[in-house]
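ARCHIVE CARD
Drawer: 12
Card no.: 0347
Subject: one protein chain, sequence and derived structure
Cross-reference: see card 0346
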Amino acid sequence: MTSPTVGGQIFRTLIDNNGVDTGIAFPIERTYSEWLASDFAGEALFADGIEANGVVHTTAQVDPPQPCQQCHMPSAYDPDPEVHFEAAAGGPNRNGNLPQHHFAGANTWIPQILKGEFPNLGLATAFDQATLRSVEMLTQQSATLELSSARVDDTLTVAVKVTNLSGHKLPTGYSEGRRMWLEIRAYDSNDVLLWSDGVFDPDTGALSTSAQTRIYEIKQGLWDSASSTCKTTDALGREMFHFVLNNCVAKDNRIPPLGFTGISNPEIAPVGAVYPAETPGSHRSVNFDQANYAIPLPPGTPSGVRVEARLQFQVASKDYVEFLRNQAVERGFEDENTMCATGPGRPFTVGPQEQTRGEYLHSLWSNPTYGRSAPVTMRTAMQSL
């Protein structure tokens, strides 16, 4: 997704961190470009967008290459050769070669809202299946997590390695409110919590953070010439999410895919993070990140301390949802039925109705039934010492 052309001119162009206008249409989302710069694309040419033209072998570590459909439209398969899958009645057996229209991604939250708000659709099972497929994508196909730790006196040093298994940055896609982070906890031998970081509060939707918290995300913002910075907060210190109005990137520490060669591409390069080359001069960035922690222990804590790490993913953060509500209220947006009064089928009796869209989304997010977009635990790791 790219900043649109309006009246023959690019609406927003990318301003780099030196304040230079690159003239490049602002890259709002770049999932395909991330894939194209990875080993998953390799040297293959996917002419029809579904599969390589024949078996194309490359020198990349992912061989043969994998298109997006490999993960997001997996083929129906049964080990029993007598089981037939047909694309059409009477067609040939497509067992193992019949892509399913799952389109699973990472959104585990919205399907449950649709299920709860629109029960008359009769799609409860389908919404549950969509959620389950997204959970499986996050927990089984996206990342690995490794933990190592050591103790010196009353300090634990902990290293947590997150490796990206996907064919694009992790996380990717729609950037606003979407994030992944590390939750770290330390317990004594009696399971008493000694220290924690990156813990989500289900009652408020807030995330506890510190100087050590590792959050993987992209933060796009508005270039401020006066301070020569990419602004991502307003005058009150609140996070901003202006989407198509943005023209700079303040942060992008999302983990690259295997064989990533986009390190010098201003549209997909990391910002505020360094992903070194696999080998000197290879121009291929590593596909992992290591977060290091120094955990203070109460003086005299005996041995048997247990450290736990969880890789968490969230669809919509508290800051994001509150921003949308605040914009609607503070700027005097019209409610849904007033704004679209001349549209077909108005007034609607479902959805926002007499609320603005921002207020409506906030009310759904705040509804305990929908868990304030509670995170999904992608991976866990643990060590005792």
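Annotation on reverse: Helices lie at 31-36, 69-72, 110-117, 124-140, 318-330, 336-339, 357-366. The longest strand covers residues 143-152.
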